[in-house]
Amino acid sequence: xxxxxxxxAGAAVGSALWCVSCPASAxxxxxxxxxxxxxxxxxxxxxxxxEGSGGGGMATWATTTGYGAEDGIGGNVHxxxxxxxxxxxxxxxxxxxxxxxxxxxxxxxxxxxGDTGAALGLGQGFTFTQDIVxxxxxxxxxxxxxxxxxxxxxxxxxxxxxxxxxxxxxAVGGKDxxxxxxxxxxxxxxxxxxxxxxxxxxxxDANQTGLLGFGxxxxxDLEPQFEGSVGYLLSRNLVVGAEVRTxxxxxxxxxxxxxxxxxxxxxxxxxxxxxxAWVDLGSIATFExxxxxxxxxxxxx
Length: 301
Description:
Blueprint: H1 3-11, E1 73-83, E2 88-98, E3 102-112, H2 116-119, E4 127-140, E5 153-163, H3 166-171, E6 178-190, E7 195-204, E8 223-235, E9 238-245, E10 259-267, E11 272-280, E12 291-300
Antiparallel strand pairs: 1-2, 1-12, 2-3, 3-4, 4-5, 5-6, 6-7, 7-8, 8-9, 9-10, 10-11, 11-12
C-alpha cells in the first residue's frame, strides 16, 4: 500500500465533495417545508473544499457546513488526496456551522513535489505547507427552503492563508508568503429538477491557491476570480457534476491555468460520504498536464 493511501486511511475522516446536491424530487430529501429547526435535509449539510470551507472540492458555496439548522450546530472533519503526474496534494481540516448562519473552518494543505522537487532544484520530496483559517456568513436566502422564487442563498467570507516556505516563494518571484482573500457566493438548489448551481467570486492574488505564495513579478494586485459548480442527483445517494475555478497568473517563471474537475460522490448517510473525481489542474511550476485522481472522505453531524 502506498504512503498516500496509508495517510488517507489513517486520517479516519470522510468526505463527499458534493453530497450537497439536489434529489430527483422533494421526497428524495424527506422534505418537510415547515421543519427548519430539526436539522438540515439529507445531502444538504455541506462538504469540504480543499481549503476547508463548505462547498465543492474546488469551489466554495454559500451553504454552511454540517447538519445543524437554525437552532443548531453542525460540523465535520475531512481528508483529501489529489494524485498528479508530478505532484501530490494532501488536505485535512475541520469546520463548524453555527445556527445555519456562520461557518468557521481550518485546514492544512501539503503540496509534495516528490521526484519533481529534485528537478526543480528544491530537493527530493520537498513539501510546501499552507494553513488556512476561514469565516463565512450567510446574508440572505435559503438554498433549500426558498423554492417559491429564484433568489439564491448568498454568503460572504474571508480566508487567511499562511505558507511556510517564504524563502522559496521569494526566489520564484512571489511577493508574500501569506494573504487574505474575500469572496461572495450564491447557491441555488432546484429540488424538482434535482439540480444544484453555485457561483462564487473570489478576490485573490494567490499563486496556485497560495501553495506558491501570493502576488508576483507579473502582478501583485487582488483580482476577481470565478468558481462555479453544478451537480445533478442520479439517486438519493449518488450525485455527479463538474466544477471550474479560474486563477490569476502572477509569476513570470511559470504560467498558471484554470482548474477543472468532473466528480461522482456517494453519501453513505448523513455522517459519512466519499467522493472520487478526475481533475485537470493544468500547468504547475512549469510541469504541464497535471491531471489525475481526487479522493476525499468526510465525517460529520
